[in-house]
Amino acid sequence: MTGEPRIPCASAALPASANSHAAFAHGTDKAALRTMLKAARRALDPVQKAQRDAAIGARVLAWWRGRAAGEAALLGVYWPLRGEPDLHPLYAELARSGVRLALPLVVAPDTALAFVEWVPGEDMLSDRMGVAVPAVRRVLERPPVLLVPCLGFTAERYRLGYGGGYYDRTLEALPRPYTVGIAYAGDQVAFAGAQHDVALDLLITEG
Questions:
Q1: H-helix segments, 68-176
Q2: For residue 109, what pLDDT is reported?
């Protein structure tokens, strides 16, 4: 993603670490980066992954509680796929505290995402992309805040996804929602963005 971030976040730009792929990514195309990052996720130890997921969930919860006072309690979340951080315990805690949750819904190829209300524990079905969605679809307007899963990210908070462009198209319409990228700290890479890309407002990892 390219462009200047709309809302500066002092803690959002993360330095490259020993676990980061950034040092190896310069000059590498996005397809190669995706292959590398997917392989790294498949290699994660399940116990370590669960610990990292719990740490991310705790950081998101602390951020939300610090931000959400007096605001509409509607948050766009995601259903984890392909080794993405699993934040279901966080979602359950938010729902218990009265936060309304919305899951993204793919309505057609090459279109923006729609959003449907979701209550943890309700019956789910698989959509056309194999993603879990509520069996009863209660369509909502786009939430003002979105948790956005990242396959990779840069120090400038540009997101690398799976290449479908659904989140890119979702963020084209103004006013844009506040976007919180969710990733593992080791998923930091470097790549040249495209003209249509937009930096995430915040990036939350486990460390």
A1: 88-96, 166-170
A2: 83
